[in-house]
Every structure is written in structure tokens, then in C-alpha cells.
Design brief:
By secondary structure, this protein is mainly beta. The chain contains no helices and nine strands. The chain has a single domain, classed as Porin (Beta Barrel). It has strands spanning 7-17, 21-27, 30-36, 40-51, 53-55, 61-80, 86-106, 109-126, 129-144. The protein is elongated, with a radius of gyration of 20 Å.
């Protein structure tokens, strides 16, 4: 089997969706209630660079730290329940991520655990719906080579 280079370049896209929710907003003496099927949707495309250090054979255990730069694109949609009216706004910002993949290769499969931390610039949906995004992630990954 051909040996893979340790320096790795790649791209990734993450998608986050906030599930169905009920919400209440108060402005002065007015209370507005509503619901939304998916009030917040985020897409996080990024370019990655990492260093894969294998231990044992090329098909064995590996540790792969890396960094990524990209953007965060979001859509916020809130619907009022008493009238057919909705608030919808889009926002975007830059982002940076550090990550660590730990895994192994067995036959045609690669699998492992990834942990990462992402920080973005400010997402400005509305005057009281804005802020920077901090995201900590732990998950499993797998791939089949053919």
C-alpha cells in the first residue's frame, strides 16, 4: 500500500440546526409568542491543514492535530403564532477551528474520534440577536476506501 503524506490539506462543511421551539419576546408592554420548526440553521465551510502522525504500520493508529479557517453562515427565522408573519434574517462571519483526530485504519476503513473548538466573529441577526459563536465538538468519524 502507498504511504500517505503526513501533511494533509482538506475541506469540510459542518451544518447545525436548532430543533423545533416555542419562544416569547417582550417589547415594552407587548408580549409576542411564536414557534419555529428550525429557528436557527448554520453552515460552516472551512479549509483545513493537519499533520497525521502514524504509529506502527501505515495502516495503524494515528494522531492528527490541525487548524482550519472558514466562515459561518446563518439563518434565523421566527414565526408569530397569532398572525401569519415571520422574522427572517441572515448573518455571516469568519471562523477559526483547532481540532484533533485520533483513530486507526483497519483494512479499507478509517475510523476514530474528533474533538474540536471553533470561534467565529460576530453574527448580527438583529439588534438583540447577535454575538460571537463558540462551539466545542466531540464526535465519531469513519470512511471507507475503495
Amino acid at each position: 500500500m502507498r504511504k500517505l503524506p503526513q501533511l494533509r490539506l482538506g475541506a469540510a462543511v459542518g451544518v447545525s440546526v436548532v430543533g423545533p421551539s416555542q419562544w416569547t419576546a417582550v417589547r415594552g408592554d407587548t408580549e409576542i409568542t411564536g414557534s419555529s420548526c428550525s429557528p436557527l440553521v448554520l453552515a460552516e465551510p472551512e479549509l483545513r491543514v493537519s499533520w497525521r502522525q502514524t504509529f506502527g504500520t501505515a495502516d495503524g493508529f494515528f494522531v492528527e492535530p490541525g487548524v482550519a479557517v472558514g466562515g459561518v453562515f446563518g439563518k434565523l427565522r421566527l414565526e408569530k403564532t397569532d398572525v401569519d408573519e415571520a422574522f427572517e434574517h441572515h448573518a455571516s462571519s469568519f471562523s477559526g477551528r483547532v481540532f484533533l483526530n485520533i483513530g486507526g485504519r483497519v483494512g479499507g476503513w478509517t475510523a476514530g474520534v474528533q474533538t474540536s473548538y471553533l470561534h467565529s466573529g460576530q453574527l448580527d441577526f438583529a439588534e438583540n440577536a447577535k454575538g460571537e459563536m463558540d462551539q466545542f465538538y466531540v464526535g465519531l468519524f469513519g470512511a471507507w476506501r475503495f
